[in-house]
Amino acid sequence: MRSGQPTRNLPAAALLAVLLSALPAGAQDKGLGGIMERATAAMDADRWQEGLDLANRAVRLYGDDNPQKVYGAQFGAVYYRKGLCEMKLKRWNDAVRSFETCYRDFPNKGNDTGNVYQKMALLKQGEAAMGAEKPDMAVASFTKFLTERDRARDVFPQGSFYINLAICHYKLGHLAEGNENLEVAIRNKENFPTPDTGIIAGFQELVSTAVGGRDEQGLLDFIGKNRGGLVIAPAEMRRYAPVFLKLAGDALAAGMTRAALAVYQFIPGDDSGAGSPGIVRLAALALIHERAGNVRGAFAAYQQLVHYHPDAAGRGEYLYHLVRTASLIGEEDLARQEARRLYADFPDSPHLAEIRATGFVVAEGDPPPPAQPSLPPADADDPPLPADRGFAVAVDLYQDRKYHEALAAFGKLGAAPVEGDEGGLLARFYETECLRRLGNLEGLAKAVVSLEEKPSLGARRLRQLEIDGLWELVGMKQWEGLGRAAQGLAGQRLPGDQRAQVAFCQGLALENLGHRFDALNAYNVAMTADAGASEEVARSAAIGVLRIHHGDPDVRDAIARRGTPEENAGNAGAIRLKEAAAVASLFELSLGAGASLPQEFREFLDRK
Asked: Do 18 and 130 fall into the same domain?
């Protein structure tokens, strides 16, 4: 992103024509023209050092004898080409000087307009200044280029340009100006176009600047406004997952938990492998929830790590933390079972002494832990979306969480299908997604019935239609059937957003069937499965947790005794009250996705 690609506005033959058109007759045969012909050939063959040597020779032989008078403004092209070679060789300061000479010493004046690169030299000078780590100079050059360029002739890669301008502003600590230019690049990513690599580079610099300036709200505002443009295809997002993990980790280390959670939401959670990004994200969420006081949330994250990532590099640690957190929330049977697994699979674990001290001792003759069920392979990525501009706009609205607007846009696309969407099937699928996210379960059930389940949709979209059957049962309040169906889907290797949906539906069924502690566990899985990216699911799951605690007699008693001599921080009610207070705090921090904590649950945060 620093230098961009050299802009060759004219092919070699045209460049030579410009250089030779006004040269003395002798020079046209072998002098300057011959040197630049060889230099251009070397550049076209990516022999940049050779091209630079020849350009320097041209300057040395013909640049000292008043070239402006002898050759006119067109001699600036020699310096422009010289600068391109220097950029390729990462001689940034030399390139800055070459482009400056092209612009300053060979201006187009009067009838002499032979320097076709004069204004483009400003653009390249800015890129070279970025390479030289002089962002202030780069901003000045870029700004001057925008003001002076010939709009018809000076064609340039606009997406990369605005990304570079944004990065320079961020490096100078100008968050607002950086955001403005990054938004231009994102908003016009289809028209410019703006490469995904550029958007990620710009976002990376934005997060670094916001973290350095402790401007968490500025970062959150930008993400909220531009989420659709920051979301790219899952396969591409996996390539950039390590970048997002680092950014989220930096934000977390700086105490910017809301920002960290917002960045973690971009990371796919459906991958496998010993060190996959989904593993790192779940481990970070366990830490965030436990730090906030929601041990049950950490337990849910560790459960997913052990169950869905059996090949994780840190499996021994995750098993230990699963035993520890299960014990803390009173899940004694599961803690004892997983302790046996830790003994069996990791006999050299440094945590065994601690586990024994808690009373989880494996005696001779104790049965081995039950075998962990093998999971089917993850569904393959869905086919790419249509390239149609209108479809891309509708998808951006959906990713921006503007579901009413997206629903209308997809409705039009379904009625008038675009190329690549046979019969409007994809558009109608996304209509169902908008209805689901808006909570219109009746409309969802009707739309799903009319949607053909064709293989062309892709495995994950077809899986979502299967999960939509759970939402239909939710709407019908068929709790027993919902519980059975959700349990069956929980055994699949689901991506994070689908896992969150299934866990929420499972929690709702368990709650309504009177199994409140199992419901709490399921709701916490829903809150952690995709870091809250499915905001409507995470928010509803958090409300479910608070609703259960609000109706818990032991919690009510703990609230009544809080701040009095009868308060007992160690009893079950007080422990669950602490859990409720943690979830209420996390709701205000992130899980509520901007919604206010309902008034009836504010008592969890009260302090007497």
From this structure: yes
Alpha helices in 153-215 (DSSP H): 158-171, 175-187, 196-212
389 part of a folded domain: yes
Q: Residue 530 burial (CB < 10 Å; 0-12/13-18/19+)? A: buried
Nearest-angstrom CA–CA distance, 540 and 548: 12
Judge if 187 and 129 occupy the same domain: no
- DSSP character at residue 492: S
Distance CA 404, CA 409 (A): 9
Nearest-angstrom CA–CA distance, 234 and 240: 10
Retrieve residue 169's tokens. Answer: 């502003």
**Higher per-residue confidence, 15 vs 383:** 383
Expressed as residue numbers, the domain containing 500 is 468-492+494-608
Phi, psi (rounded to 5 degrees) for 72: 85, -170
Half-sphere exposure of 213 (CA within 13 A, CB side): 17
Reading the block at residue 301, the tokens are 């994250």
Q: How confident is the model at residue 3 (pLDDT cuts 50, 70, 90)?
A: very low
Rounded distance, CA 324 to CA 332, Å? Answer: 10
Asked if 281 and 530 count as a contact pair (C-beta separation under 8 A), the reply is no
In a domain, 328, yes or no: yes
Distance of alpha carbon 109 from alpha carbon 217, whole angstroms: 49
pLDDT at 268: 75
**Spatial contact of 590 and 294, defined as CB atoms under 8 Å apart:** no
Q: Is residue 49 domain-shared with residue 102, that is, in the same domain?
A: yes
3-state secondary structure 92-146: HHHHHHHHHHHHHHCCCECCECCCCCHHHHHHHHHHHHHHCCCHHHHHHHHHHHH
Question: Rounded to whole angstroms, how far apart are CA atoms 214 and 216?
Answer: 6
Joined tokens for residue 509: 């069924």
Which residues lie across from 109 on neighbouring strands? 112
CA distance 497 to 279: 15
State the average pLDDT for the chain. 90
DSSP 8-state code for residue 51: H
Question: Could you tell me how far CA 344 lies from the centroid of its own chain?
Answer: 38
Domains in the chain, number: 5
Query: Are 104 and 131 contacting, i.e. CB atoms less than 8 angstroms apart?
Result: no
Question: Do 207 and 182 touch, CB atoms closer than 8 A?
Answer: no
**Position of tokens 């496998």?**
272
pLDDT band at 430 (very low <50, low <70, confident <90, very high): very high
